[in-house]
Every structure is written in C-alpha cells, then in structure tokens.
Amino acid sequence: MGDSDTFHLLRAVALAREHLLLGHGGPFGAVVVRDGTVIGEGWNEVTSANDPSAHAEIMAIRRAAGAIGAFSLAGATIYASSEPCPMCLAAIYWARLDRLVFAATAAQATAIGFDDAMIYREIAKPAGERRLACTHLPLDEAEALFDEWLRKPDRIPY
Amino acid sequence: MGDSDTFHLLRAVALAREHLLLGHGGPFGAVVVRDGTVIGEGWNEVTSANDPSAHAEIMAIRRAAGAIGAFSLAGATIYASSEPCPMCLAAIYWARLDRLVFAATAAQATAIGFDDAMIYREIAKPAGERRLACTHLPLDEAEALFDEWLRKPDRIPY
What we know:
The structure is a homodimer.
Chain A: H1 2-21, E1 29-34, E2 37-43, H2 46-49, H3 56-68, E3 77-82, H4 86-94, E4 99-104, H5 106-111, H6 116-124, E5 133-136, H7 140-151
Parallel strand pairs in A: 3-4
Antiparallel strand pairs in A: 1-2, 1-3
C-alpha cells in the first residue's frame, strides 16, 4: 500500500494547493479511493462557497457517495492533506470509510490558525461545560417522532 | 426567549416529521434563526441524497450561510429536533453560531439506532486507539503548503 498511499496523498495535497492558489478557501484537499480508483475529490470551499461545512473531506465524501450512488463508502479509504477536524472525522465514521491516511497533523493546522484543537476539546466536554450556549428543551412532539420512525416499515437505517 | 424557543424548535420537529413521511431520511430537522427571522431550514437527506453528511443541522447551516452570503453565522441560533452528533456540533462551532437549542437527546437518538454515542466516544480517543484504521504519512509537500498559506497576502481566515 505504501507507494499507492503516497500517490493518493500527494494528489490530496496537490488539490489543496491548486484551490488555495485559486482563492477557494483554506489549504486542504482530500481524495476518496476505492479498489484503486479515485471516486471523489474535494478541497476547502468555505470562504468561496460561503459554506462553513465545505471542508475538503466533506466535499470529497459528498462527491464520492454521489458518484457511486450510495450513502455508504464502506471499503474505501480517504486521503486528507491534513488530519481531519472533528466535523470531518465524524463524517468519515458516518460514511463508513474503512481507512484514513493524512499528512499534516491537527496541531500543525492549529498552528497556522485553524480551530481544530479548540473544537476537539469542546466536543469532548460534557454539554453543560462547553463555551457554546446550549438549551435542552424536551418536547413531546420530538419523542413521538422517534416512535414514528421506529414504526415506519420502510425506514432505511444508516 | 421561552415562547420563541418553543416556536422555532417545534418548526424543527415539524420539518423532521414532514421529510420523514416523504422518505427523505432519518427523523431529524433543524432551523437557523437570526434576529427573530428563520434564515435556513434543514432536514435529514442522507439516504435520499446519498450524502452521509446531509444531516439536518448541516443542511440548515449550509442554507443559512448561503442565504446571507457569509461563512459566519455569528449572532444566530440553531434549533435542532435532536441533540447534534459530533459532525453537526463541530459544524456549529465552525459556523460560529451563538447558541444551540435541542429537543431529543443524543442518548434517545442512539436508542432508535443512530450511532451518535459511538462517534462521540471515538472522537474523544487518541488517534491510535480509534477503531478507524489511520495512517499518518508526513509529506514535505504538505508542510510547504501550510507555509504557502501563511505567506498568501489575500488569505481569508475562518
């Protein structure tokens, strides 16, 4: 896997550089590969698309899943030019990706001004201790909805 | 804020129910509100859009940021029918939202079959202890790219 890992990871870095120079967003790129074939590529588009969720890994996952017409990317590997932030790492779990390969570390991303480390710390805290103001407002309607989901005969779990 | 919170949260639940019945995905809805005005609505579209990142909160954030033409939602509140998963919680931080209001808990979402709790546990672990196979492959090109970002005079931090 060594040479192939380096090949795909260099592509992720090249995507990051290309779109950095085009002014699309932060210096991040990602590639999703299955059975040796690239099925999705992404780069950071936060500031150009006005989409705070448009990180490279999210975009690569969205495109890969769209390309294969499935919401599971089981069996695939994601190559990221930099260690994923918690949003992207969680998306990797939701996408059921098998494997992650990354080059720069989250600490290095933090050192150039991205908030990955802060968000990792916040997410690990109990809800009441986070800096985000948070209100739990239980509603009967919300509980009834979950029951409705369980009773739905054609529901598709993911 | 009490009545207004209940009003917007009930809208998030109503969106969840409406799109559950339409078969769009899991039973989740979200609304982003700024200055009393709804600027973005979302519902789960994972299985219908074949997009593992298409959770209600992500979709509401994407639409709200697109609607106001900015990548920051500072000053806004997000109402979620269910406590956000780590992906969505991290997106809330990246979007600089001021406040989160939710109805059902992550434990309740886990109880009806969603993996929120597992992903919260995984993300809190050191990288080497996660169930996701993970390879750190440092590349000179990736480090050079971060330097290039810092030297870019017109870079837009976020």
